[in-house]
């Protein structure tokens, strides 16, 4: 099965004609409340695409947290590894989206940042039996490092989506335990120090990240698709994006990561998994919101 160790948030989204600038007020928006958090989004993406998914996370002892856990359970995600924190509120994300699907997001992480490696003893068995461990950067770095090390020890494939964009260099010991790193262009630039704006610069950035000890680097490039680099063989590949009308790119990366994990967990080769993820993410950008935009297996045509 797939184990997602990551964040759970409640997303409050306002969609309007344009994004406000600092100090500006934009009227005429429409409000949506949805389940979110990159961890939960990726867990739901994987579950909807047919995988057995277990989540390890932390929510507050409040209505938002209860609702989030119940929602994950309804999605078919095993929630036994989700801890409750009495001192911190559940995570919240405020999202603004414009007509073209561009977004701005501010997150109050709350309980997500109260997760500690010491608490993970209680859920160690879940990690030990994982085929794939999928993580993001919305939980404390010591937890991510600890889980990556433990997962590798037990033979799992460790996939890290370094999102949101890291403010500090990722620890080298962490990168050494990551099998597949999936940054978007901004994240790839922050990690490698090389600006990524086309396939050539993506190749340069991926090469540098490969030198940091990551086996496979997958840079997602929005409507330009993905750039993939295998540091062991030195091979690289470009997978163009599907042509779709994007209405809201929220959770496109989450969908991509969840879908890739599903295909790899089924034992499919990387190129097939990339195609699957690219197709799933393309569907997600045609729909509004985070989790509501994530496709189900039956929606995936084989084209
Ligand atoms: P993030 O949302 O994390 O910034 P990207 O914008 O790179 O990530 O999108 C992730 C993936 O979603 C892309 O690699 C691609 O597969 C798909 N995707 C994103 N935007 C589009 C688009 N406009 N058309 C088709 N696919 C898209």
Query: Which structural class should the secondary elements be placed in?
Result: alpha/beta
Number of domains: 1
Largest sheet: 9 strands, mixed
Average predicted confidence as pLDDT: 95
Strands, total number = 13
SSE topology sketch:
Blueprint lengths: L1 E4 L3 E7 L14 E7 L1 H11 L4 E8 L2 H12 L3 E8 L5 E7 L5 E6 L15 H5 L3 E4 L5 H13 L3 E4 L11 H5 L3 E2 L3 H8 L6 H13 L4 E5 L5 E5 L5 E4 L12 H14 L4 H15 L19
Helix pairs in contact: 1-8, 6-7, 8-9
The protein binds adenosine-5'-diphosphate.
Family: Belongs to the carbohydrate kinase pfkB family.
Enzyme class: transferase
Subcellular location: Cytoplasm
What does this structure look like?
Its cofactor is Mg(2+). Its main location: cytoplasm. One of its GO terms (biological process) is D-ribose catabolic process. It catalyses: D-ribose + ATP = D-ribose 5-phosphate + ADP + H(+). Belongs to the carbohydrate kinase pfkB family. Belongs to the carbohydrate kinase PfkB family. Ribokinase subfamily. The protein has 303 residues and is an alpha/beta fold. The strands form two sheets. The protein has a nine-stranded mixed sheet with strand order 5-4-1-8-9-10-11-12-13, with helices on both faces. Strands 3-2-6-7 form a four-stranded mixed sheet. The chain is globular. α1 crosses α8. It has one domain: UDP-N-acetylmuramoyl-L-alanine:D-glutamate ligase (3-Layer(aba) Sandwich), CATH 3.40.1190. The mean pLDDT is 95. The protein binds adenosine-5'-diphosphate.
Features:
303 residues, alpha/beta, UDP-N-acetylmuramoyl-L-alanine:D-glutamate ligase, 9-stranded mixed beta sheet, 4-stranded mixed beta sheet, 9 helices, 13 strands, globular, binds adenosine-5'-diphosphate
